[in-house]
Amino acid sequence: MRTDETSRFVRLGVELVLQVTDKGELTGAAFDRIGEDEFMPDEERGHARSAVRDDTAEALSYLVDPVDLVRGVPGVELAQASWSSELVDYDPEAAEWGLGDFDDLDDLDEKSEGDEELDGFEVIREDEDQPQGEGGARRA
Fold it and tell me: What's the pLDDT tens digit per position in 101-113?
C-alpha cells in the first residue's frame, strides 16, 4: 500500500496500570462475565474460571475491552485491536513508569489556570509545545 492509501489509519496506544483493591470483587465480576458469554463453549468455561481464580490479570482481561474505547466515536471504524494484561511490579517513582516521553515530569506539577482534576487525576492538556497526540492524565 502507498502512504496516501494508509494515512487514514491511526494507531492509538494506551497503557494503564491498575491497582486491584478487591480481588474477590474483580474475580466475581469476571466469573459473571464468563457465565454470561453466549459465545464461549461450555467446555472452555471451566478453564476460564480456573485461570481467573488464579490470576487477577486474567480476570481483568475478561472485563476490560479496549473496543469499548472507540465504540460510538463518530467518523471511525475499528480496523484491528489487541490487548493483554499481566501482573507487574509497579514503582511510581521509577523512570519507566512515567507518562509519555516528557523530559521533565516536574514541570507538569505546576497547575496552570484552567487545569482541572477528574476523579483524582490531573488532566494534562495538549499545548503548542507538545507534539500532536501527546497528553494524558496522572495521579494528582
Answer: 544 434 444 444 4
Q: How far is CA 82 from CA 12, 37, 56, 69, 123, in A?
A: 11, 19, 19, 13, 26
Residue 112, CB-side half-sphere exposure with 13 Å CA sphere: 7
Q: Sort strands 121-124 and 136-139 into parallel, antiparallel or unpaired.
A: antiparallel
Give the model's confidence band at 99: pLDDT under 50 very low, under 70 low, under 90 confident, else very high: low
Which amino acid does the sequence have at 58? E
| Dihedral-angle region of residue 4 (phi above 0 means left; psi in -120 to 50 means alpha; beta otherwise) | alpha
Q: Do 140 and 117 form a contact (C-beta atoms < 8 A)?
A: yes
**Residue 89 gets which letter from DSSP?**
-
d(CA 26, CA 18): 12
Residue 41 has pLDDT above 70, yes or no: yes
